[in-house]
Structures are given as structure tokens and as C-alpha cells.
Amino acid sequence: MGPGKTTTRTRRRAVPWLLLGLWVGLLAFMSPFSAKLSDVQADRAVDYLPASADSTQVAKIQEQLPGGETTEIVLVYHRDGGLTAVDRTTAQQQVDEIAGAHQLTGTPKGVPSEDGTTLMYPVASNEPGTDEELRDAFVNDVRDVTEGGDGLSVEVGGPGALATDAGAVYDSLDGPLLYTTVGVVAILLIIIYRSPLLWLVPLAVAGVANYLSMGVAYGLHSAFDTSVSGQSTGIMTILVFGAGTDYALLLIARYREELRRIERPYDAMRAALRGCGPAVLASSGTVALGLLCLLAADLNSSRGMGPMGTVGVLSALLAMLTLLPALLVLLGRRVFWPLVPAFGSRPKERRSLFSAMGSSAGRRPLAVLTGGVVLLGALALGMLNLPGTVKQEDSFVDKPDAVVAMQTLAAAYPEQSTQPINVITPSDRTDATLATLRDHQGVANVEQGRSGDGWTEISVAAKDAPQSAGETATIESLRSQLDGSYIGGPSAEQLDLKDTNSSDMKIVVPLVLASVLLILVALLRSLVAPLLLVAAVVAVWGAALGIGGLVFGPVFGFEGTDPGLGLLSFVFLVALGVDYGIFLMHRMREESLAGAEPVTAALTALRTTGGVIASAGLVLAATFAVLLNMGLVQLVELGFVIAVGVLLDTFLVRTYLVTSASVALRRKVWWPGKLSREPDPAAEQGSGSDRQEPPRQPEPAAVP
Fold this sequence. Notes:
Layout: H1 3-34, H2 54-64, E1 71-78, H3 85-101, E2 111-112, E3 118-125, H4 132-145, E4 153-157, H5 159-193, H6 200-224, H7 230-259, H8 265-292, H9 300-331, H10 353-363, H11 365-380, H12 401-412, E5 421-426, H13 430-439, E6 443-452, E7 455-462, H14 469-481, E8 486-488, H15 490-524, H16 528-551, H17 565-593, H18 598-625, H19 633-665, H20 681-684
């Protein structure tokens, strides 16, 4: 045996073990950082509000005032037939007990309703400060003290209680979201591969990638103070398992194909990586670059999700292109048992679903394309039925105690607002600000609060109900009149969220489209094909939102939509949806370069990648569908729209519309690249060394 062959065999054995060793060392290094990610997760208002908004400035200044951030809650005592003297005594005793156990700001005073059924005690404390755990402990302790019974109901509401209830939902994402995602992906991989071992490999690699992403995310936070919220960490986990499994499906399908042509697993894996590597790199690049465009958003939650999502996708990419190939090569062909792809064998000839789809698209491409476009357009009209912006009390799927308290207050005190508008004004202008507030027709009550660092806090009670049109008009009027002051509070925050999401759409959407288009042009060496793919994913986004409009109110019973739904669903559906277009069009380009005619190349690409795209689409849709089980309306809506959009993209747009458009356009789909021009007959009759190899006979389906 020659030295060259010995060196080659040694490399085949050493490279997978070397990669495995590097990953063990990397995980050992990242372990301390990954474990700390939950410690820096924050879900306060300032972590979700617009960076430049009035309400954000109010929240930040309040943290700097004497005593720090104030936790405001409202104790609500209610009896349907009217409160009794015993009820009022009970309420006062419980409030006194709370005041004795905690440092309160001022003395709580009861405010009875006009009908005598309700008594509310506004309670504020600086004791928790900005510590979320102390805030939750304070709210929960108050809930333990306040007890009703015998017809008397006692609820704890207000901004502090709402924040505690929302934090409980976000805390639940760490465990249930991860376990549910892993379980869903595992079930789908078992169904796809029908193997007792193979499904474990990509799932384990995805778990490793998720652990790596947690460490990198913590490092980014430590170095650049990036925002880490419950929402962004949950989305990062979904992206790691969803996108990572997609990459694994494509690689394993191509590896199986190469094992039938190439004897040694190491060489077959090299061929598989050469074949699908560019598509996977371009796919992850579009997702990462699309998510990074969120850095241009003014909304803190959206801007923080950009780097977190990017970390998840790139961690999945790194693991699936290094650790997964190493494990597959070390395990050899037996990992596919019982459906082992033997060297020199051919898969069973069978007519697949995607062959039938391709045939129908190939016979009448214009009719299929027209019908699909009309269908997507009709579904997009459902956006006209989307409910308005969701209110705070409607943002929970199952109403917690804080929301019940808000509803009780709204019914018992229709003549006044039951949550404050917070005004922060320069201390040297306090008197003028107070005079303006007291003279305003929309203001019912004004109370001066703390002062410090040149600022004074003023609490304003509006005449209209929270988040009503009248209160919104009051907030906007005060902002226009009080130059130099900041207007905040729960209602002002919701208003700023809506306005900022609208402005962010105008900035982020063009950036995402331009970024994705540039990557597609570079990969496909064409302008028409990238434009076709981008137009397709935008149409899918519109149709998915339209379906949301048809079901959110009538089926789910939601009273509104989250202001960020449009932007986030657009970024995810465009970036992730283009993935499947890349898988399909890259294979189509391969076939065309190998000499296949345009129609043959398009139908062959669909037959060979259809199984992979279907499997990947199901996995990605299922991972986002996990959000449907979460307790916040914004997560349920986001998960629904993305899951529906991915399914539309997988089974309608890629299989029918993109294929039929490619068949109809023929070589023009590659314009202005070389493939758009008709081949030169003289060149085709050249010497054998000049002629291209004929295309491989495709397998009926990439995934068995």
C-alpha cells in the first residue's frame, strides 16, 4: 500500500474524531456561560418598549428617583350585592398588615365605587426596586395576605401585578417550550426516517447547538449589553431546533444519495457537503442577515431579537455542518438501519407525490401559477378582518388575577381611569406643569410625587377608561402641551408600541428584502429567480396574516393583535421561507449546469428536493406551532402566522407556484446569467473532454 493511500485513510479516520474533540472542548468552555443566560433575562417594560419613546424615558427616570423604581398595584374588594361594613373592616385590616410588612410609598387610601359594590386601594412600594424577583415576591406576598370568602372577592391588579403575571408566562418558556419543541421534532424525525437510531443524531446535534447558542448569547449580552428577554430566548430555541433540523434533513438526504454512488462514508459526506453546502450556507445567511436587520428597529424587544435569533441560526449551522457530518461518518451506513443505502444500489422506483405535483405544474404552468396567485390574494384579504391592537387586559390567553382585577375596576369605576398616567417634568417647571394638568379637560386628578436629579414625578388620573379613545386623546394632547416633559404609564406604553412598530416596518422591511435579494443574486447568478422567490415569500406572508385575520377573533376569541405581529412575522417568514426556495432553485441550477433542459431541470429539482422541503417545512411549522400552547396572545399569534405561512410556502408556493413559474419562464428564469442563453450547438458537439457529463438519474424522493 502506497504512502498516499495510507495518508488518505488516516485523514478519513482522524478528521471526524478531531471535529468531535473540538466540539467537546467548545462545550466545556461554553458551559459556565450557557448556565448564566437565565440570570440576565429581563422582562421589564423598558426591555420591550421603544428606545426613544416618552414612556421609556419615564421608566428610566423613575428608576433614578429617590427610592428607585416604584411597583404599583391595586387591591380590589368586590361584592355583587354591595360591600358590607365587615367587608370594609376586613379590607382595612389587610391593607394595614401589608403596610406593616412592607415599605410603602404613602398611606393607601380606599376609593369606593359609586354603586357601593367595589373598594379599591392603590398601593405603591419602592422596596423591590428594579429587581424582578423582589417585585414578584412583593406581589405574591400581597396576594397571600388578601383573602376574601363568603361572597367577597379580592383581586390584586395594577401594573406591578400584570408584570408579575406576564413574567410567570415568560419563565415557563424555559422548560415547557424546550421540552415540547424537542418532543415534536423527535416525533417528526421518527416518522420521516423510520429508523430507531438515525432520528437521534440530528436531534442530539440540535440540542448541542442550542446549548452553544445560550453561551454565545450570554457573551453578547456581557460584551455589548444586548437585550435578553423571555420572548427572544424562546424564539432562539425554536430557531435552533427548527432551522437546524431543516439543514440536517437536507444534508442527510444528500448524504444518503451519495452513499449509493460512493463506497466510503467519508468520501460520500464530502460529496454531500459540496453538493448541498452552498444552499445551506446561503439559507442560513438569509435568515441571519434578515434577523440582523431588526437592529435597525427602535423597539427594544424587536432589536434584541435580531442578535439572539442570529446566534441561534449560526449555532445550528455550525453544528449541522461539522458535528453532524462527523457523527454520521463515524456511525457509518448502519445509522440508516433498516433502510441502509448500499453502495451501487438504486432506490425503489415509485411515483412520489412530488412527481405528480411536478407533472401537473409542467403540463399547465400558467394555469397553475394563475390559480395559486389568485388563491394567495384571496387569503390576504383576510388581513382586513384583523382585530385592532390588543389591550393589556386581553394579552393573556387565560386571564390571571391581575386581568380579572382590571375588568372589575373597569365595570365598577366607568367614570374614571383606574391606572395612572405618569408624567416626568423638569423640577424647575413643576408648578407650571401642575397648572396645565389641572386645567386639562381630560384630567380628573393630579398628585405630585417624588423629585430628584432635576426631575419631578406627577401621577395623573384621566377621566376616561384605560386605553380608551378618550384616554389616548388625553395622552396625545398632554404630550403636545407639555414641552420638555415625558408622558408614560401603561396606556402610554401601549400607544408607543403601536406607533413604533408602524415606523419600524417602514425601515426594517426594505432592509430585509434588499439583504435577502442580494444573497439570492450571489447564489443563483440571476436576477429573475431571486425576484421570483422574494415575491413568493411576500405573498405567503400576506396570505398567512390573512388567515390569521379569519381565525384570531372568530375562532380563538382574541380581542386584538400584538402591534409587533406584522413586523416579526414578515422577518421570519421572508427569511425562513426563502430557505426552501434556495433548496429548490439551487438544485434546479445544478441540473441546468449538468446539461438538463429547463423543464427537465425544474421537475427533477422538485422530485429530488420535494421530500426534503416537505419534511423541513413540517418540522419548522411544528416548532413554531409550539407557541400556540403559550399563555400570551402575542406568542400564540406569532406562532400561528409563521406555522401557517411555512406550510403554505412548503406545499403550495415551492411545489406548485415556483415550479410552474420556472417551467413557464424556462431559461429566462436565470436571466441575465449564462444559463439564460441557449446553448451553442457547435460547442455541444466538441470533444469528449469539452462535453458536460449527463445529469444523474434522480431518486424519486430524497427522504424515504
